[in-house]
Amino acid sequence: MPGWPSEPARLDAPARRRIRSSHFPIPTLLENLNLLASPAGHARALDRIRAAATLAHDLAPKNPPLLQTVLGGAGLAWDAVKDQMATRLADWARVAAENQIQLALKSHFGSPSDTPEKLLSLLDQVQHPALTAIYDYSHFQLLGLDLIPTLDTLLPRASFLTVKDSQLTPARTARFLLPGDGNVDYTTYFHHLRQRHYRGWILVEISRQLQTAPGYDPTSAARRSYAAMSRALAAARLR
Hints:
- It is a single chain.
- By secondary structure, the chain is an alpha/beta fold.
- The protein has a single domain (13-163, 182-206), classed as Divalent-metal-dependent TIM barrel enzymes (TIM Barrel, Alpha-Beta Barrel).
- The chain is built from nine helices and eight strands.
- A six-stranded parallel β-sheet has the order 1-2-3-4-5-8. Strands 6-7 form a two-stranded antiparallel ribbon.
- β2, α3 and β3 form a beta-alpha-beta unit.
- The longest helix has 21 residues, at 39-59.
- The radius of gyration is 18 Å and the shape is globular.
């Protein structure tokens, strides 16, 4: 993706020790890999999984975080690339397992695997225990898909949930927002999670669109997101 660094950010040994000693929970690390990259790009992706696994075990040796990623291939047709995606995904899963981490995969608006059903199809075709799913309604919202049916489809295979809002621009491109700044009904969302006895992580995602916008304030974004989610959790009787 243009604008993203070509190499992962590096934490020196003292920084890693500080993170370990803080005991702050780190449920996931974030990558931006592409199943449909060139052969050289695919090899680099495998190396990035190895590097991320090293970091994961260094930061939390007893409970290394998942490595989450989208799957790439923006603009390509699902039927034309799904087999190649599955073949490449099997390589990702093998390397993740060799390095003792799990890969959490996310559907993304504009990519070939943009629906819950397509993501599950890849997981079912590869059938590897190192692979799991992420549920992020913001991408399905952009397709006009309803919250509860997509949640019910993907929740049994999801290791955690990502929350943010989204809108389509007049040019039909994605605009991502803080959770609560759009029209997702989080009270209904969280009430349904309560009914389904969900006990996993719910993670706020601040998109790169927001992080690179003029005047972005990370502290304000965190507080606003926390306030919106707290109100919805309370309304759903989850806190």
